[in-house]
Amino acid sequence: MGLNSSKMNIKYMFQIMFLLIFVSLFSACTHQQDAKPSPSKEIDKGHNKPSQPVEAWKLPIEIPKGEFYKIGSWFSDHQLLYITNLEQSSSVYFYNLLTGKSELLYKCEDPIVTLQVSPSKKNILIQTSPSTYEGQVIILSPEGSERIKKSFPSYELAFEWNPFNESEILISSFNEDWTYQMLLLNIEQSKTTELSIPQPFIKWIGKDEVAYLKWDETSPSLFAPLMLKKMGVESEEVLFNDVLQFSSYQNTLMTVTAEDEEQLQASYRFYNKDKKQLFSFSIPHLTMFSGWLVPYHDFNESKGKFITFKPIKSVESDAYTEGFELVSYDINKGDSDMILQGQKNEPILLSPTGEAALYGNRFEKIINLETKEISELVEK
Known about the structure:
Mean pLDDT: 87
Strand order of the largest sheet: 1-2-3-4
Helix content: under 10%
Radius of gyration: 21 Å
């Protein structure tokens, strides 16, 4: 396997390590015939049903077998996917918040590292780690049947699903020294192609276009130009200069930059496909050894709802003790809503309708964004 031989500077290595912390929170799988759930009313794959009030949810989750590891993802507004561990094996379950019942989707002989659901909910990605230097990727149907299974020599893997063509997944395969290889996995063709892209953290910005921050490894900087590159083409173009972090959605691009030359606040800007600014807001920022801390956030594009944790003031992150506000911004209306105060900066994931959010390092909590209440999903 050919490896990118370029060495990353210290700042760049810290950025990679920080971004991989969330990836590595979740680890070969043997497909079990009895793991495939039979069609039932409990595991309803429909996504267009009206949402139910949070008061109707049945909590906490009663774990059928093994020990709770973490919630993997939403599958619908009332269905979750969660992982349990039993000795060295792992299982994936659907949980129906309305009926309070779990149903087994898939059983593995080794621990699961990562679980991701594709944007359309037609595919489920599971990553396991048969050994320290091997990652196995399995794509499942919502019924639990294997569509593809591939192994990659790696120390860490990061994934980016193509929302414009869900048969394609970008895979960043890292070695222990953080050198990396970029791969394109085609599910329909069951084929992996090596790519020549100069950065490991890449996001789809079109069906065959990607965007990435072009960090200068020879001259460490807090910001970098945001680049656009068409797959299979050598040339690249600058979308925006001086970007700290960005996220890409089907019709929206979000960048985090400095508010002004004094860099007193972080500015979040939202653009449409024509790079026309739709909305912006600014919040205090926390400094770290390798740059700024960008708090956890998520975006429901269909509702125009962006949710983020917000520090009270700009200081060094190690000295910050005031907690974070959880704020929701409506990029269509241009207003905001305070959800919670005094919270920890931990991962957050909006439900399909944006009425609730999973919260916590293991998504072990759920937030009702209407009543602004937090509930535990699993008994401690």
